[in-house]
């Protein structure tokens, strides 16, 4: 379970799509564990920068997201266990948002604007 928590606190970034918090180099080297199948971050530094943010508030550790009402409320109940940001500042580029919509994926902005 401890392997889910980022060890190096420098260069932490949160995915703008799912909110998972990882180090920049993890997104670049391995991609996002939740979003990689439809937003290819692995090996694409520019996509990592576009689809993640270093500005986020609050963190919650989800070990069993499928059983957590907090995970359901935060729209992360179908994602992998890990550390997630409560709010992430920023939005994904419009072209990526359009590509997600074409694949039937609903983008829930993590910056709180969807609640307004």
From TrEMBL:
Keywords linked to the UniProt accession: Elongation factor, Nucleus, Protein biosynthesis, Transcription
Pfam families hit by this protein: Spt4
CDD domains the record matches: Spt4
Main location: nucleus
GO annotation, cellular component aspect: DSIF complex
GO molecular function: RNA polymerase II complex binding; translation elongation factor activity; zinc ion binding
GO biological process annotation, one example: transcription elongation-coupled chromatin remodeling
Domain Spt4/RpoE2 zinc finger: 12-89
UniProt key word Transport: no
DNA repair listed as a keyword: no
Function: The SPT4-SPT5 complex mediates both activation and inhibition of transcription elongation, and plays a role in pre-mRNA processing. This complex seems to be important for the stability of the RNA polymerase II elongation machinery on the chromatin template but not for the inherent ability of this machinery to translocate down the gene.
Family: Belongs to the SPT4 family.
Protein name in the entry: Transcription elongation factor SPT4
